[in-house]
Amino acid sequence: MVYYMAPLEGVTTYGFRKHYHDNFIPFDKYFTPFLVPHQKRGFNEREKKEISSEYNGNLCLVPQILSNESEGFLETVRKLREAGYREINLNLGCPSKTVVGKGRGSGFLAYPDKLDRFLDEIFKDPSVEISIKSRLGVNEAEEFLELIPLFNKYPIKEFILHPRTQKDFYGNTVNLKMFEMAYQEIKAPLIYNGDINTAEDAHFIEEKFPNLKGIMIGRGIVGNPCLLELIKGEEAISYQRIYSFLQKLLEEYSKVGISEKQVLHKMKEIFIYLERLFPDGRKSIKKIKKAEKFDRYQEGLTEIFKVC
Ligand SMILES: Cc1cc2nc3c(=O)[nH]c(=O)nc-3n(C[C@H](O)[C@H](O)[C@H](O)COP(=O)(O)O)c2cc1C
Q1: Atom 6 of ligand 1 has which residue's CA nearest to it?
Q2: Which residues lie closer than 8 Å to 215 by C-beta, 6 or more apart?
Q3: CA 218 to ligand 1 center in whole angstroms
Q4: What are the pLDDT digits (tens) for 54-93?
Q5: Which of 3, 5, 8 most suits a substitution to test ligand 1, by most atoms within 8 Å of the C-beta?
Q6: Average pLDDT for 5-16
Q7: What CATH number should be reported for the domain whose range is 2-231?
Q8: What are 188-202's pLDDT values in tens digits?
């Protein structure tokens, strides 16, 4: 069973991936948050950081593209190939209204004919392998039944399925019945994604789907960076390493020429998920979330880790 870190725009960005990889049991693969094709010749500064090994370290990274136009997709693929990438992930999962409104992400699933033509075009490019990260559909999980034969026409490197619809957003429970259908019918190697927050959650999926290729984890690993270690048999959470990871991340983001406020914003995004590790640290978490300066942030951080 392989384990992948999910792309989380604004959270599992380059610094997070690199320092996670260096400080904890590594994932087998990491994915960039989505890149949107644009007219510029090269990549912009933010995109360069997401894909360059200088900022990512030595890990297996797959860039993700969000697009419903084969031309733009293939042009971005060409640039990524120049940067050395041979595997690309297509985002068919993003549920955000602005993305879906443009018929992209999970919104693309509502247009099977257009999706079919798009896949037909992009799979003609022999220079890269393409994996897909998808939801079940837009409104109803059953929409996926019609998409299965479409996906099975193409040599998809891996199919990562988050068994929710766009309409579910992150609510409702994951639809394991429909995932089981994918498990039986999707030809590509299948990766499960969604709501893995404890070792028990992962073991449950591993046992229920013994031939699954792997599991992708997003919010769960941000909420507890030791989660993969617990899944692999470690018994205790190393608060010391989580503390040191957060300090390295703060240093990393402070180096790249963004303001104190922007650096703290990045750290606060992590605490949206990480706060659940500190149920007794509410007051200090509040201090972290309100911090406008590094010293207030550090005060809150020291307090929560002292309790541990
Ligand atoms: C803040 C946030 C940003 C996300 N950004 C992306 C993204 O850029 N690309 C993508 O494919 N999925 C994105 N996702 C979805 C996650 O990769 C993942 O599919 C989802 O969170 C379910 O998995 P989890 O329960 O393990 O977090 C994002 C999710 C969140 C919460």
Answers
A1: 8
A2: 1, 2, 3, 4, 191, 192, 193, 196, 202, 205, 206
A3: 6
A4: 999 899 999 999 999 999 999 999 999 999 999 999 999 9
A5: 8
A6: 96
A7: 3.20.20.70
A8: 999 999 999 999 999
